[in-house]
Amino acid sequence: MENFDPTKGESFYIQLIFDEMEGNISQHETEQLIVWRKQDPANEKTYREMVENADNLELLKIYRQLDTEISITSLHQKLRAGQNIDKPENRKNLSLVYLRWVGAAAVLFLFIFSSIYIFQQQDRVVLSSTHTETARFTLPDGSKIVLNANSSIAYSKRSFHRSRAVKLLNGECFLAIVHNPNKPFSISYGNISVRDIGTSFNFGIDGEQLKVSVRSGIISIHENRSEISKAILKAGETATYQTKTGHMHRDSIRDLNYMAYVDHHLVFNNASLNEVAKSLELAYHRKIRILGSLTLKRHFTAEFKDRSLSDVLSVICVALNLEFLEKAGIIYLQEKRKQVRTNGS
């Protein structure tokens, strides 16, 4: 496969991961790293664990001072200069010293990496929502965040005021950022980071699609922590990034209810009943099913602002001559049953 060198060991790619985290990685090396990650799910797991747990720059610098490959090469050269390695007994001695040094370096690396992990576990703040409800938080800089159901983010308690960096772990969130031109805010997932240029926007992952939609202001989208913007979006625009292929498509926001889970502001303009039900499911995190084929042909126009699901369903039912009932946690919409009249009534 292009850019993948099977002769390179895991340590080579771990080095590339650290290079990427420090911003000292070339385009060719970035491509090599991407291909390596796609080779094996275990590689991708290693990458994510290192990125999520290696924000401690002090420990990272310690690792940088222990360049094992350069040190091994230097040791090898010194031993070659001091011995005639063509002799079998000297080759044996050289191998023993070499192996002992590599073993010691490996143990030291594991110690440092485990130290990073333990430190990060204590330093890391994770904000999460439940599987059925949204959650609202205020970040240390005053920025507001609403997590959609079954979503979570993380940031470093120690370095947030300096970096204002947040990571999306899963799901979707809406952010209203306190703008600070001297300390730009960023949120990332995998290879993509979104940087605030004074804005509020929605950011979420769904399978292999990462979607960003801007409500106000401007954002810039960056790939692989590059300083070169991949795209700049303004209010009313959205972009979808394919995490596997790296392809990105931008468009104007067409789904008026993309952030209804945040404020329950819903707009329906001659929407089919299927479309209405889907929007309500996403906004209120309830399962809604439509019974009967005739109801699928009906369309609905209305606007709701911060209304309960029961209120919205009542209005829909009156407008479309329907009724709703709940059974086993599922809401069913169906044709309104006719009242049976008795004699004399």
From TrEMBL:
- What Pfam families is this protein classified in? FecR, FecR_C
Q: Does the keyword Membrane apply?
A: yes
Highest taxon in the source lineage: Bacteria
What are the record keywords, sorted?
A: Membrane, Transmembrane, Transmembrane helix
Q: For the FecR protein domain, which residue ranges apply? A: 129-219
* Membrane spanning residue stretches: 97-119
Recorded hits in InterPro entries, A to Z, give:
FecR, FecR_C, Ferrdict_sens_TM
- Name of the protein this chain belongs to: FecR domain-containing protein
**Annotated organism of origin:** Pedobacter fastidiosus
**Taxonomic lineage per UniProt?**
Bacteria, Pseudomonadati, Bacteroidota, Sphingobacteriia, Sphingobacteriales
